Amino acid sequence: MGTWISKSGNKSKRIEKVELGYVEEGNVKDDHEKGVCLRTSSSCKLLLWILEMPLYLPRRLTIPIACQERWSKPIAVVSVTLAPILLSILWDLQDDNVNLSLTFNSGLVYGTGVFAGTVFGVLAYLKTEKSSPPKNCLLPWLAGGFFMSVVWSYIIAQELVSLLISLGYIIGINQAILGLTVLAWGNSLGDLITNLTMALNGGPHGAQVAISGCYAGPIFNTLFGLGMSLIGSAWYGYPSPVEIPKDTHLLETLGFLIAALIWALLVLPLRHMKLDGVLGGGLFLIYFTSMSLRFIQVVRDPLPNTVSIT
């Protein structure tokens, strides 16, 4: 009996050693996998940081930020100094006859930007603290940050439009098609997802918010966005008027837009303001007809490719 017990004791010790070995080996494997994942994650973060830096750094150095979590006095001083200079550069580049030599007007514009940036930078250095953003003059900081964010949105939008136009000439696609598809879909994709989510999950109130947003967004873009753009263009080119190239496709687009608005005005009162497939089906049919007509026109009269490779 004693011998049997001793054998059992030896077996139990061997089993414990084997289990302990498996546990230690498993821990080593887990630690190795975690290390590989951490190194991979660090490499991905470093790659994303390198790709993001050329776009992030100019925005960070020209947009004043008065947030406690992101406050940095040196960056704040640099941002309020460089923001007027960036505005002067953009103002000077609006001229079609850009010359590398500094003319009187260009010198005046750049001088004003440098002077304003220097004044703002000195005031920011003297009136701000290292530990926290300004509290007494917080409104000018917020207004400046909002304005410079709008300026950067304008810069990015202008570059995207230029890129689309260049691709249209290279590939041979009509610019109107690019505007109706790539630019329009990309600009409205966020609103589409938001309005669809509200309509499906928000009940009657969600549907009301969704349909209000569907019409309020284009109204804002058309009235405020187009109005401000035309005011700026007319002010910059005064006394010459703003000339829009004659384009029959633009008139067709406006015609289909008016047809969609008339359809909504007729259907909603007749259906006692009840949203159903009649309104949606009619709007989709109008849009499908507009897109089909435009594609037929492009196929019939293709844009000649202006880029030739010799």
TrEMBL record:
One Gene Ontology cellular component: membrane
Transmembrane segments: 75-93, 108-126, 138-157, 163-185, 219-238, 250-270, 277-296
Transport in keyword set: yes
One Pfam short name: Na_Ca_ex
Any one GO molecular function term: antiporter activity
InterPro entries: CaCA_antiporter, NaCa_Exmemb, NCX_ion-bd_dom_sf
Species per Swiss-Prot/TrEMBL record: Gossypium darwinii
Domain Sodium/calcium exchanger membrane region, first and last residues per copy: 142-293
Coiled coil residues, start to end: none
Protein family per UniProt: Belongs to the Ca(2+):cation antiporter (CaCA) (TC 2.A.19) family. Cation/calcium exchanger (CCX) subfamily.
Keyword vocabulary terms for this entry: Antiport, Ion transport, Membrane, Potassium, Potassium transport, Sodium, Sodium transport, Transmembrane, Transmembrane helix, Transport
Predominant cellular place of this UniProt entry's protein: membrane
Protein name: Sodium/calcium exchanger membrane region domain-containing protein
Entry keyword annotation includes Ligase: no
GO term, biological process aspect, one: potassium ion transport
Membrane topology note: Multi-pass membrane protein
Location in or out of the cell: Membrane
